[in-house]
Each structure stands twice: as structure tokens, then as C-alpha cells.
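Possible regression after last week's pipeline update?

I re-ran a chain I had predicted before the update to compare outputs. Posting the input and the new output here so someone can diff against the archived version. Not blocking, just want to make sure nothing changed silently.
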Amino acid sequence: MAYIVAIILVACFTANVTLGAISETGTAPLGIVAEMVILFGASIFFSIGILQSEAHAKSTTTKDKINIRRKL
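New output (post-update):
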């Protein structure tokens, strides 16, 4: 879920930059501060996703070790 939110935020940032590049005035719809907040949010959600993935991998590895010990 966190990865999906991060991808959506990066897509919003990319769309904003693209719209700013093709606009006649040369300015993006969102300001510089909004772009920073979007990128900050994307990095936070990406970090949360990595931490969740590591926790899941660690719990799976721990369960596998317990099952191996029980079989012995």
C-alpha cells in the first residue's frame, strides 16, 4: 500500500513538471513548495514500504527457522 501511494505521488510530481514544461507561460500548476511536499511525501511512503517489506521478510525467515527446528 505504501508503495502505491509513493508511485501516485511521484506520478503527480511528474505530471506537474510535464505540464509546466509544455505550458505557454512556462510555470508549473503547483508551486515550488508544493513540489517539495509531494516529493517529501513520496520519499516517506517509499521508506515506509521498504521498512514493511523488511519486517515481512524477517518474520517469514523467522517462521521458516522455527519450522525447520521443529522438523529436526
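Follow-up from reviewer: compared with the archived run. Residues 2-71 form one domain. Marking as no regression found.
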